[in-house]
Structures are given as structure tokens and as C-alpha cells.
Amino acid sequence: MDFFTAYDGTKLAYHVVGDGPPVVCLPGGPTASAYLGDLGGLSAHRQLIRLDLRGTGQSAVPKDAASYRCDRLVDDVEALRAHLGLERMDLLAHCAGANLAALYAARHADHVSTLSLITASVRAVGVAIPGELRCETAQLRRDEPWFPAAFAALEAIMAGQAAVENWQAIAPFSYGRWDAAARAHQAADQEQQDMDVIAAFGAEGAFDPDTTRASLARFAPPVLVLAGEVDLGAPPRALAELARLFPNARLIVQPGAGHFPWLDNADRFVATTAAFLR
């Protein structure tokens, strides 16, 4: 683990895993980057530099809680790039981290070599994900033994009953296999979550979709948009719309994968991502 200092003096941590040309990795949540691990073995091909966003993992809590807002985190990513001495960098982001990556790419396109968006959140670009699409995606799991209870909880959430137990009940939808490894991964990730940080990340003013879309339409570097076939959090149809915002993007849907495709089929995820990063 290493540290650098952000623009406001906040001490931020990053973790280096593997060898080879570096890839800067932005976690979702925002939460500690530990849940990314070595991205299913991608570290055998590239050096992964995982950033703990401010207030998460080993990074310090800032004095100003408003600095958790996604658009303000762009300056932290830029500070990390400068600290690493990279003129241009390969940038990989998962889930909510894709919002930050999109804002960074819009503001600092000249410092990005490639952009990999893994089961991306699409809030920053204003792509709508209708409840009907989430339900349609969820129905792909209807033969699973846990499906009836999880689907009932999903319907309750969509009806405005966002109780903690309902959110917990839909956890199996995030994984291609709801096995012991998935349960352990989900439990560890939940322990790292700070709901105040998560709420501040998307606070009012964080996103300006029209402006971001206009900038990304001029973003020339190659983009990988990787979707999980059964991921109701970021359904392939929504990520296809995300891919169309870029002039040089490729959408790949990983069969049978949920929100964490490197856990569901590590070999396939690594083959796809490593081939793109060459």
C-alpha cells in the first residue's frame, strides 16, 4: 500500500498488485477497493493500481464531506496520475466508479490511453434503466432456488419499500452464482460501505449528463464497455446505450455474469479485458 496527497491535503491510499504496464482501477460504491482483488487474475497481465477513494479503505476522511461528491473526486484521480508520473494512463472502473471515470475522461481526455467500464453505473451520462428492464433481466434467474424471495424483494423495492432486508434479499442477483464465494464477497463488501459517503458521492450537482455526453462524443481513445448478461444493476441494454455515447467503444456481454464478472468467470473476464488492454 502506498499514499499520496490530494489537492486539499487529504492523504489517499492506493494498492499495487501484479506486474506489467499499469492500469489505474477505480472501485464502485464508493467503497474500499479491496473487493476488486486482482480482478480475477488480470494482475498476471498488467499492474493494477487500485485507488481507495477518500474516506474509504485506507484513505483518510477529508475535512470537507462535500468533497466526496463524484465530480470533485476527479481531482483526486488527476492527482494520482501526476503522482505516478503517467502522462497517459489506462483507466478501468467498476460500477459507480464508472461515473467518476466518465467525468475524468470528459475533463482529461488527453491523459487517458484506454477506458474500461465494467458493469458500469450510468448516472453520470443520464441513461435511464426502467424498472421493467431490471425485472426482465431478473427473470433470467427464475430457475434459481432463491429466485422467488429475491424477486419479491425486488418488486417491493420498486414499489418504494426500500427496507434493509429487501436490499439484502436481492443480493443473489448481483452474482452469476450465488455460492459460498459470492456470499463471502458480498458480506465483506457490505462491511466496507459507509452510507453517508455513498450518499454524498451522488449529491445534487454531482452530474451534468448533457455536458458529459457532449464531451464523451469527442473522446477518441478506445473504450471497452463490459456488461454481465444477468446483471440487473447494469443491464446489457443500458450499457449498449452507454457504449453508443463514445465514437470508439466496444460493448462485450459476458455470458452468465452478474455485477462482478471477474468472480463469475475469471478466465473469460481476464481474456476479454487483457486483450483490450494490449
From TrEMBL:
Keyword presence, Phosphoprotein: no
Domain AB hydrolase-1: 21-265
Keywords: Hydrolase
SUPFAM superfamilies attached to this UniProt entry: alpha/beta-Hydrolases
Source superkingdom: Bacteria
Pfam families: Abhydrolase_1
Cleaved signal peptide residues: none
Transmembrane spans: none
One GO MF term attached to the UniProt entry: hydrolase activity
Entry keyword tRNA processing: no
Protein name, per record: Alpha/beta hydrolase
